[in-house]
Amino acid sequence: MKVRERASALLISSNNRIFLFKFKFSSMFENGKTLWITPGGGVKEGETYEATLRRELYEELGLEILIESKYVYARKKVFTDKKGIEFLSDERYFIVKVNNEIVIYENMTNNEKENTKAGKWWSLEEIQSSNEKFFVDGLDKILENILSNNIPSSPQEI
């Protein structure tokens, strides 16, 4: 089975909000499944997860950051693409804190521009009361733990 490695940022502002993209997976899934997802992307050959995350945050949001921590959440999930082929998504999530909520979309790839439908800073309360579809169930609990500084000491499966 093909494995797709992905580095993702749980991007938290000083206003205690998390940044998410509304992304349409048109190249992966029939009818282009749309979800709110974290910034990040696929690990290229020879690249570390941390280097991937730095590159992706610059491409997607214009942020130049240092990754100062290890990943704290992980997910391994099997998906089936629109051709009926299964692949394993091996995802690592890093907490990245920023002082403001300024993002710039001008460095996005064509695929990102085409499939990104919106970007939004979400509060915990907005996530808890939303009917939107998020990349993972229990996002509100993950954000609540981060905001209360209840960070896992070793990577936790989500």
From TrEMBL:
<feature type="domain" description="Nudix hydrolase">
    <location>
        <begin position="2"/>
        <end position="148"/>
    </location>
</feature>
<keyword id="KW-0378">Hydrolase</keyword>
<protein>
    <submittedName>
        <fullName>NUDIX domain-containing protein</fullName>
    </submittedName>
</protein>
<dbReference type="InterPro" id="IPR015797">
    <property type="entry name" value="NUDIX_hydrolase-like_dom_sf"/>
</dbReference>
<dbReference type="InterPro" id="IPR020084">
    <property type="entry name" value="NUDIX_hydrolase_CS"/>
</dbReference>
<dbReference type="GO" id="GO:0016787">
    <property type="term" value="F:hydrolase activity"/>
</dbReference>
<comment type="similarity">
    <text>Belongs to the Nudix hydrolase family.</text>
</comment>
<dbReference type="InterPro" id="IPR020476">
    <property type="entry name" value="Nudix_hydrolase"/>
</dbReference>
<dbReference type="InterPro" id="IPR000086">
    <property type="entry name" value="NUDIX_hydrolase_dom"/>
</dbReference>
<dbReference type="Pfam" id="PF00293">
    <property type="entry name" value="NUDIX"/>
</dbReference>
